[in-house]
Amino acid sequence: MLKHLFSSGRIGTMETRNRIVMTAMGNYLANPDGSVSDKDIAFYGARAKGGVGVVITECAFVDGERGRGNSHQISVADDRFIPGLRQLADEVHHYNGKIVVQIYHPGRQGISVLNGNLPMMAPSDIECPTVHQPTTAMTKDEISELVEKFIKAAVRLKNAGIDGVEVHGAHGYLIHEFLSPRANKRTDEYGGSLENRMRFLEEIVTGIRNECGKEFPMLVRLSVEEFADTVGFPDDGLQLPEGVKIAKRLEQLGVDAIDVSSGTYETMNTAWEPTSFEQGWKIHLSEAVKKEVSIPVIGVAVIRDPEYADQIIAEGKLDFVGSARQHFADAEWSNKAKEGRIHEIRKCISCLHCMETLMGADQTPIPCQCGINIEAGRELEFGDFREDGKGRVVAVIGAGPAGLEAARILAERKFKPIVFEKTNRLGGQLEYASKPPNKEKINWLIDYLKAQVEKFDIDVRLNTAPTLEELKALNPYAVFIAQGSAPVIPHFIPGFDGETILTPIDILSGKVSLQNKKVGVIGSGMTGIEVAHLLAEEGNKVSLFEMADQIGPGLYFQSLIDVMTHLGPLGVPMYPKHKLLALDHGKASFEELDTGETKEFMFDYIILSLGTKPNTELVEEIQSNFDNVRILGDAAKPGRIRDAMETGYLNAYAL
Q1: What residues are annotated to the active site?
Q2: Which CATH architecture has domain 490-610?
Q3: In the chain, N or C: fewer CB atoms in 10 Å?
Q4: Could you give phi then psi for residue 63, rounded to 5 degrees?
Q5: Sign of the CA dihedral 641, 643, 648, 654?
Q6: R_g (Cα) of the chain, nearest Å
């Protein structure tokens, strides 16, 4: 089973136990001075312990003065970082894994305030269209100095016992900027022709090979396609034919493997894909490179299924299967696949919570997090599970993500969770979340939670809302209330209770099915947008309203771009700055906030997507009759999947 995925491999002199690579992703775990932290060591060690063949770290910066990407990032800019890197290597080697450190400079995609308030260096004086930081064109002396910094960084890695180095030439960072005709407008020997645009990378690669020798494995990560057409520039940017030529030239220069990716910050959704991107969508990129080079090719393409990973190796589309987020979501993916426990894999659902928290980590108290794996990045904190439940009963009311995650941890700790669910299914709000277009990946999380119920033989009682007497009869050690939330109905608005007034749950549950109707959706949070998308795809004429200045207020930009990319072609008119005043059967009255004018619209049905509120039934009664009561997930405070699962995990862990 999976014989190709679990066959040994080789990258230069480095032998690998399988063809699985955890590709680089930021994790915000390094110490503020750039040294490897204990959290880093535990994080990467957990992935090696989980069976990953080659672990590639986050991008480590080579320039300590003007090359930081965030304030908690690994540095290879000085010899003083070698001891920490050596500890990291030792930890991964302890679990028979290999470790490669990715080195980079952020270029114009860096943040000035993190780099001495200096302008970010780039091949040309053109700011990044996404981050909009002050940018300056590098002088030839600065280019030479930075080439030397890359070379010295690689030497440090070799001296630290790291198994190899990956030069980051992808995703719109500095090296990629030199490669890209969209970012590089130089007229000297570092710009213009592909040969000139490659010169910076060639000098780095050649210098590393000369200083580190042929025996030290060197990989290069490339965005072989920028997909500039997705942002309106179909004939611009680095495109696949040139990307393949770069890969071929790197092989001639002695590079040991090409790690194929795509995109820049400007085309971010092609690099770090939202939920609508299907597994394997860009595997043609690695396939195109592999046809033209004889060195190993690592490929990424939202790969989640071990069977699919094995298949694309067998088909010769790549040599090593890469993923970052999948191993963030489940450190044990590799071992579970090898042992035939595929149904137990916690598949990444592409929710982008990791990207959102990483991008905002320097501005918020929230570090980089996984939306569905609470332990990710907190391996030291949760490394020692106490199995002290002693079979004591814990009643869990509600079988949504909070309740089921709590039950899983309680079972691991040897408590006896008994889960009560008033409906006939597991999953709670996840069932509704999976219904809009392109949200099928939510079902992967439901399947995982169901598999955990089976694994631990958890007592689940469907179609059961327990009475106080039934709970008392259990004599529970604790009661966890995870009964979810309900849509907010604005009772202060006239006409809210008409027959034509519906909530998202009416649509997502299948209670109401609409076709060829004129529908107004009021509220453009993600639920409102997704319901509008679903209804529009089903042939309804849909309009979307929002009181805030913009559609999708507070939504993470990658997710908003993704859903709007699909909603836009359906011709859904959108009305921001429209405050709902009244409803009268199918008539909705709004105040247009810019002008103060009242506008009226007629619909067959109106969907009110104005948020949710906790279900509070039984809460007071249970709290007054039991000493140890915990309220989880939406029942405490409506939020996202991460919020629900985290409250379930933490309360069960701390009980």
Answers
A1: 173
A2: 3-Layer(bba) Sandwich (3.50)
A3: N
A4: -125, 105
A5: positive
A6: 26
